[in-house]
Amino acid sequence: xxxxxxxxxxxxxxxxxxxxxIESDSIVIKNPRKVTIVTDNSSQRIHVQGREGDRNYEYxxxxxxxxxxxxxxxxxxxxxxxxxxxxxxxxVTGNNEKNSQADVFLGGLLxxxxxxxxxxxxxxxxxxxxxxxxxxxxxCSTVFFDKSHTHAVTLRTFFNWRNYRMTGDTRFVKNESxxxxxxxxxxxxxxxxxxxxxxxxxxxxxxxxxxxxxGFSLGPVINFTTASSIKTRYRMNDGKFxxxxxxINPRKVTFDIMGVIETPEIDLYLKxxxxxxxxxxxxxxxxxxxxxL
Length: 293
Hints:
By secondary structure, the protein is mainly β. About 5% of the residues lie in helices and about 55% in strands. The chain is elongated and about 80 Å long.
């Protein structure tokens, strides 16, 4: 079925303009992830997503009948997520047929997941599926070691927000030393949640292997903490209460080990930190997992 679709697409690509000009050539896209062909009375649009060794590749061709002539408008990677319209992908070699290539662009994969703290102190009752992690990509740089893009090293930078939430009968409080400790709620209170939030700027150096839309990445992550806080919400005497404390003495620099599994539909990630999140006070380590979009 894939061979039939790609062959059909090649029939309607006699020439290319706008992005590049090639005379009497065909475009061969191996193992596309998805091919969409939309036809109406005056035009036909072909949209290809993914190819062998590059699941983020996108190719779009619109063929229009104008004054009895066919006009072809081609876009390559034009619709991919990110800010490539402002700062496009930059090739170090400038030639895909070289044995290596490097791309640098703004954007990347958005990570959404959950936190599941490990090595926790007695009395903590973290609620994993009420504790979120968001990682907003900033700059991504990839170096490929072969023209098939099977092996690569990627440097990803991103802004990271992590929440560690408890929903039981204990809460986080900040003591006089500025450290976080556990304490009971006031008598008669109905707890909603108590959470620690950490903001950081992070960089990941990952080795990647890809083959036919499947693959994996593995490597270290360094996190520079930029902000931290605790927040507690509860009800008492028909009133709503919210306690917030900032500057809770987190570790300024932490390290993670990160792994990513690539599939044809969605990517899955896992991060584990051997460091405790806070310098002193409540002890726990960070384990997060989720999806990449």
